[in-house]
Amino acid sequence: MWYISRMAKPIYISLIFFLLSSIPAVLIAHHGFQIYLAGILVFFGAYITIQAQRCKIVNTAILLQIAYVTASSIHMIYHHVVTGISRPQGLFSNVNFTAQMLELSLPVLVSLAFNKSIKGIPKWLLYGGIAINLLALLITQTRGAWISAVIALGILLFCVKGWRGILAGVTTVGVFACIQYNTIAGRISTMSSASNGQNIERLNGWLVTPKMIMDFPLGMGFNNFKYYYPAYMLPDAKEVLIHPHNLFLGIAADAGILSAISFSCFVGFLAWYIVTNIRYIPDTFYYIFALGCATALLTVVLHGMVDYTLKNQSIMVFCMLEAGFCVGMIDYYKCSALNRK
Q1: What is the domain partition of the chain in residue ranges?
Q2: Cβ contacts of residue 317 below 8 Å, gap of 6+?
Q3: CA dist., res. 113 & res. 172, Å (int)
Q4: Can you tell me whether residue 324 is helix, strand or coil?
Q5: Angle between helices 143-161 and 163-179 (to 10 degrees)
């Protein structure tokens, strides 16, 4: 028997409305709609699978995705060290997409490493995976991914191990940061620089995108931002942006204001539901696993303040897989608690 918590219903309603409100954008440009559709289907698929007491299927899907990301990390490190490419793209089409997949993977790997039920060789494989993915994340040179991953991992470590976890995390990150010190120092120094060209172009994009959205309240169509942007560019803008470099502005530009509002509601309801109900998962393994997935989801929103983090289908599917896992596990155990009563 399925159990849908009353508190969780707004999550499902806002997600369905998000899909429906983006349909008008399909009439303008259909390529891109499949990203939203695939993500939503995966979310409900993961939820239903867990409710059917098939938790291991979803766990395996998440672990396989992380294994693929780790393989991409090895590919990146090889080309960075052997061929001398400063920012190799890995197995994904874009180095920034690789960074986003890494920030979705690292918190889950760290959470699994803290599970006491995992011992021996699997534990050491997890440590190796964390080291490989952390080094690959540094190689991507993606500032937004660095910051969001550090915040998410800090929250995870504090929830699991308290201040000792924070100290261990700072030490580990510090050691790896020393390997790429010059690159990190250079990238961090540009973050607050008013003369940095990349910062200027993003700021220009943020300033004009609201005007573009008001002129196209139903959306410009998926991936059409770059065609309309030249007509709105500020006088000092030099680069034609392909998207607004913001998650919520990107959705509003692609699929319309209603889609952005409904997606914002989904994010808000999801965050509230996980934070207030994750304690209902009594199983230590699944509790820490869900905590890792929840903090991984946080990176999407944090990084989304400076980039369109759900523009890629693989990222959307991975994100919704973790979201469906969290909500499904909470509802599954809440249902079990009600049955016991």
Answers
A1: 9-340
A2: 38, 39, 42
A3: 14
A4: helix
A5: 150
Report the alpha-carbon distance of residue 254 to residue 268 in Å, rounded: 21
- Provide the percentage of residues in the chain whose pLDDT is more than 70: 89
Q: Which residues contact 294 (CB under 8 A, 6 or more apart)?
A: 274, 278, 322, 326
Confidence band, pLDDT 50/70/90 cuts, at residue 340? very low
Q: Which range is least confidently modeled, 70-74, 193-197, 223-227, 256-260? A: 193-197
Q: How far apart are CA 277 and CA 3, in angstroms?
A: 14
Higher pLDDT, 190 or 295: 295
d(CA 312, CA 308): 9
Residue recorded with tokens 């190689």 = 139
DSSP letters for 52-99: TT-HHHHHHHHHHHHHHHHHHHHHHHHHHHTS--SS--TTSSSHHHHH
**CA of residue 51 relative to chain centroid, distance:** 24
Q: How far is Cα 18 from Cα 269, in angstroms, rounded to an integer? A: 13
Of the pLDDT bands very low, low, confident and very high (cuts 50, 70, 90), residue 32 is confident
Query: Angle between the 121-140 and 55-81 helix axes, to the nearest 10 degrees?
Result: 50
